[in-house]
Specification:
The structure holds 2 protein chains of 2 kinds. By secondary structure, chain A is of the alpha/beta class. Chain A has a domain of 184 residues: 3-Layer(bba) Sandwich (FAD/NAD(P)-binding domain), CATH 3.50.50. Chain A is 29% helix and 26% strand. In chain B, strand 5 and strand 6 form a beta hairpin. In chain B, the strands form 2 sheets. A 4-stranded antiparallel β-sheet of chain B has the order 3-4-5-6, with no helix packed on it. Chain B has a two-stranded antiparallel sheet with strand order 1-2. Chain B is mainly β. Chain B has a domain of 64 residues: Folate-binding superfamily (Folate-binding fold). The radius of gyration of chain B is 15 Å and the shape is globular. The longest helix of chain B is centred in the middle third of the chain and has 8 residues. Classes of the chains: A alpha/beta, B mainly beta. Chains A and B meet through strand 15 of A and strand 3 and helix 1 of B.
């Protein structure tokens, strides 16, 4: 792997930038591997990276049916935060945020993390009470949170209209939350994984599993059959389909979540602003675009196209909050298919198939969990028992009735 | 935007309807095991392709009905009333 450094930039510049090689290898599939990771999104790539780097697993294949980072890892709105209510969520997501804080150095790839905070708006005294309770819970979990007054919010976000139809009476901020560049996270993990020997095979679709007893012995793919010891499934919206191939079902509903960006403008917004009540959230990317998201579509869908009815509703909400944005041109609108669980918390760990591990159910907020998802899943696979941080997020929790009904996950905060 | 043919009122915009999730989910007997009950409560077929689902024409006639919609294309393949079972899967287009 060529290191990215000031010295190397100067060196390559001296030779007209002709010496830069590809950031990751393009290997052909070998007939057998120790671990096969299915899904070349952030979570899959991070899992492969930590398997190879932290645990020294030598033969790891990562299979991606399209190109890496083309699914939800390339369609999200780049928000990282750890303002969760329950201790199990908080400890997991704060581990992820801490990994994000060091990720640029870890990967030698600038992920452009900008921790300018995330503000949840309260539109009524009841909202404010819930925000206070939420802030207390977050702080009890050892994570930063502050309750804001209307005046604080005005100072932090001067462009915000604090007197919309449902007036803003206060809010809640996590200052360590922020945004980063999603493509950089995908590329950084891919480059790092490849450098540590992971075979990243793109255009390779899984067609089935060969099983003996309750173990997978081989994975059938569009590029041939691979023998393997262990399999990790990290395929977000396709998880029900793949679980069906392996012979079990999941408590997952696949639906559509959309996002959109305006034309780029000069910096006007530092923090990410979220209103769970009117279902909209807004941030400004480093390129200057106003990034807008909101509620998911109502119906099941694998189509990756959002309903215009939802687009209209989200935009109406955003313009209530930021009337000055009404003159901006909307540049792009897109959607991803998201895998939603009944309690809006992810499913990670073991499955009914003995050597098949699952990482899914991220629904509307998997981006923020990429480094911790990879880190904990890698250890889970190597030790064949759930990492302590994800023990509560197992598939069997639905049978135990131990749901993690995380309103902070479901909100509209991604 | 979906254009949903209500069997009572004719085709209308998606915004007039409320979604009711999958059709034909059968509640198990009270003697069900924890696993069967969990399956009934939480596990979903989450089909990629023709998917039987329920819709309520809430801003119209206020009645429920079943729709078979392809979840990869959003094409509506079949509409039938509550209490009916629809075409057997092998006959579905």
């Amino acid at each position: 792997m060529q290191r990215y450094s000031l010295l190397n930039v100067i060196r390559r510049a001296a030779s007209s930038n002709t010496g830069w090689g590809p950031a990751w290898r393009t290997p052909t599939l070998r007939p057998s591997y120790d671990v096969v990771v299915i899904g070349g999104g952030g979570h899959g790539l991070a899992t492969a990276y930590f398997l190879a780097k932290k645990h020294g697993v030598r033969r790891v294949a990562l299979l991606e049916r399209g190109h890496i980072g083309q699914g939800n890892s390339g369609r999200n709105t780049q928000v990282t935060r750890s303002n969760y209510f329950y201790p199990v969520s908080s400890s997991f997501f704060d581990h992820s945020l801490r990994l994000y804080e060091g990720l640029g150095r870890e990967l030698n790839f600038n992920v452009m993390l900008r921790q300018d905070g995330l503000i949840n708006l309260a539109h009524s005294l009841h909202d404010l009470e819930i925000n206070r309770r939420w802030a207390n819970a977050i702080r009890m979990n050892g994570v930063d949170a502050e309750v804001l007054s209307e005046a604080d919010i005005r100072r932090l976000v001067p462009s915000l209209n604090t007197r919309p139809r449902f007036p803003i009476v206060g809010g809640l901020i996590q200052r360590r939350a922020g945004i980063s560049r999603h493509d950089a996270v995908v590329w950084g993990f891919a480059r790092g994984a490849s450098a540590h020997g992971v075979d990243i095979v793109q255009g390779c679709e899984v067609a089935g599993f060969r099983q003996t007893g309750s173990r997978v012995t081989a994975v059938e793919t569009s590029q041939g059959t691979i023998q393997c010891d262990r399999v990790v499934m990290s395929v977000s919206n396709q998880c029900s389909v793949l679980a069906g191939l392996a012979g079990f079902t999941l408590p997952i509903t696949t639906t559509t979540l959309q996002a959109m960006v305006t034309e780029p403008i000069k910096p006007i917004l530092d923090a990410c602003v979220i209103s769970a009540q009117i279902h909209a959230y807004v941030s400004q990317s480093d390129r200057g675009e106003i990034v807008i998201g909101g509620s998911a579509d109502v119906n099941n869908s694998y189509r990756q196209r959002g309903s215009p009815a939802i687009t209209r509703g989200v935009l109406a909400s955003v313009l209530e909050l930021f009337p000055s944005f009404s003159r901006l041109k909307l540049m792009r609108q897109w959607a991803g298919a998201v895998d939603i669980t009944p309690d809006t918390s992810p499913i990670m760990g073991l499955t009914p198939v003995r050597n098949l591990y699952i990482n899914c159910g991220w629904g509307t907020g998997g981006y923020k969990a990429i480094p911790a998802g990879g880190d904990t899943m890698a250890q889970t696979v190597v030790e064949d028992k759930p990492h302590p941080l994800i023990r509560a997020f197992d598939l069997a929790r639905f049978e135990r009735g131990a749901l993690i009904d995380e309103g902070a996950a479901s909100g509209v905060a991604h | 935007m979906l254009y949903i043919p209500c069997p009572y009122c004719g085709p209308r915009d998606e915004t007039e309807f409320a979604y009711g999730g999958p059709s034909h989910v059968t509640r198990p007997e009270l003697t069900a095991t924890d696993r069967e009950w969990t399956h009934y409560l939480y596990h979903r077929a989450n089909i990629k392709g023709p998917y039987p689902e329920r819709w309520l024409h809430s801003f119209g006639c206020g009645r429920w009905f079943n729709v078979v919609r392809d979840t990869t294309t959003h094409d509506i393949l079949e509409v039938y009333l509550m209490g009916e079972s629809g075409r057997p899967p092998e006959q579905a287009p």
